Amino acid sequence: MELHLLLGIVNRLYDHLDATFRGIEGCDLRAIDWSDKLCINRPPQHGGEFNGEQCKKLLQGVHILERLIESDGTCESINKIVQTFKMFEDVRQKCFSMKLLHEYDQSIRAFESTYKDLNIPVTSKAHAIFDHVEAFI
Question: Its domain of life (predicted)?
Answer without folding.
Answer: Eukaryota
